[in-house]
Sequence to fold (135 residues):
Amino acid sequence: MKDKDCIFCKIASGEIPSTTLYEDDDFRVILDLGPASKGHALIIPKEHYRNLYDIDDELAAKAIILAKKMVNKMKDVLGCDGYNIVQNNEEPAGQTVFHFHIHMIPRYKGDNVGLGWHVGELTDEVKNEILEKMK
Ligand code: 5GP
Ligand code: ZN
Fold:
């Protein structure tokens, strides 16, 4: 399925040009236009899924296998010191393009890429609440 108003559908199909690092029947891998660091790339499926909540299982599995292949190659190409794999779901989590994608963000020693969170505390109350609701 494609969404005629979706920019990543158009990029994935080639209708809108992109800096493509890799392409197969299921995915296009492109450089992000607003990179967090040198080499920041996106894995974009050719079919439209809003995010991880609704992507096809088999395609999700293929996407993470492709991420593994890409970062193994790109760490050598870029000479980076680490990698973050990021995948945002819905606006409060930072999703701005509502077509599933995986960010591959190379990390370099001393870079100021702002990924992270303040470390909280897991209380017994919250732990028990979640465990109870998960049943
Ligand atoms: P999100 O915030 O949804 O997880 O990530 C969307 C990403 O897509 C952002 O990092 C943004 O820079 C990138 N992006 C948005 N529009 C375009 C585009 O037209 N071309 C490319 N290459 N990247 C885009
Ligand atoms: Zn789309």
